[in-house]
Amino acid sequence: MEEEGKEEGDYPWDECNEKSIEIDFTQFEELDAYAQKVNVKDSVENLVSVLLQKAHSDLEKVRAIWMWICHHIEYDMEAFYDEAKRASEAADVLQSGKGICTGYCGLFEEMCSIAGIQCKTLSGYCIGYGYKAEQVIEEYKSHVWSTVHLDGRWHLLDSTWGSGCVDDKGNFTFRYSEFYFLTHPALFIEDHFPDDPRWQLLKQTLRLEMDGCDG
Question: Among 119, 122, 147, 196, which is least packed, fewest CB within 10 Å?
Fold first, then answer.
């Protein structure tokens, strides 16, 4: 990762937005409204082309892609329980409007690639909010999320959790969460733990203790 320009630790801290990059959210008002209204599903390439009409900087490109996915792709509970029904290709997720975390990230990575943004899908575990370093985790779930390269550094985001939530009855509801867009690593680690500790993006990595974990 070093050769790709990844720098670890010491991300700026801003209590107002808690992001890993300085953001003036007023600059997104017009872009956010535009991205949410775009209705293109014939191809991923055409969708990105339309979204980029209002996005100029790399940050704005990532923002437009993020906003579109968070407001147009719903979590596929049927596919969650039946692996055979899971959409694996970005085009399939786009056309169906549904996906699990791998589908969200696959579409996000494909759209970023078309937009010329370096993006990776990270694998790991999602854990309960309020995790303390070195605490033993009894319940965890495998999960994937994304990282994008902006201004010479990698930044974390989770479009699956940004789009909404699933209730106790297994029903998905769109409920946008700003928190998971370019979240500061010190906050992201509270419920996202990558397989590769370097992708914690923390100056001093934390160790995850999992009770009953195979391997």
Answer: 196
User: Among 126, 158, 184, 191, which one carries the catalytic annotation?
Assistant: 158
* Partners of 19 in beta bridges: 183
pLDDT digits (tens, 9 = 90+) for 160-183: 999 999 888 888 999 999 999 999
| Half-sphere exposure (Cβ direction) of 6: Cα atoms closer than 13 Å | 19
Torsion of CA 93, 122, 67, 19, to 10 degrees: 170
Catalytic residue among 143, 155, 184, 192: 143
| Model confidence, pTM | 0.87
Known catalytic membership, residue 16: no
Which 8-state DSSP code applies to residue 135?
Answer: P
Tallying the residues shown for the chain, one arrives at 215
Query: What's the pLDDT tens digit per position in 103-155?
Result: 999 999 999 999 999 999 999 998 753 333 444 444 457 899 999 999 999 99
